[in-house]
Write a structure and sequence with these properties.
75 residues; alpha+beta; Nucleotidyltransferase, domain 5; 4 strands
């Protein structure tokens, strides 16, 4: 059985909608630490949407690192 320290770990949630990308950095009690919402660059194509998604994930990972936390899961 795996056990995680709820004090030292965060989760990244991703919602890739039809017009916007939502990302949230959350603790294990579902408390939102930080949210990012951006328009999807649909006209620029699929690879651009994925690049934007990766950039937002990296921003949230960096923010977690500043708080001394690790990312345990993405959903």
């Amino acid at each position: 059985m795996l056990r995680f320290s709820v004090q030292d770990n965060f989760i990244i949630g991703i919602d890739l909608g039809t017009t916007q990308i939502y990302r949230a950095l959350s603790d294990f009690d579902a408390g939102i630490i930080r949210k990012i919402r951006r328009l999807i660059p649909l006209r620029e194509g699929f690879l651009s949407v994925m690049a934007e998604t990766l950039q937002i994930i990296e921003e949230l990972r960096g923010y977690a690192g500043l708080l001394g936390k690790k990312i345990t899961a993405s959903a």
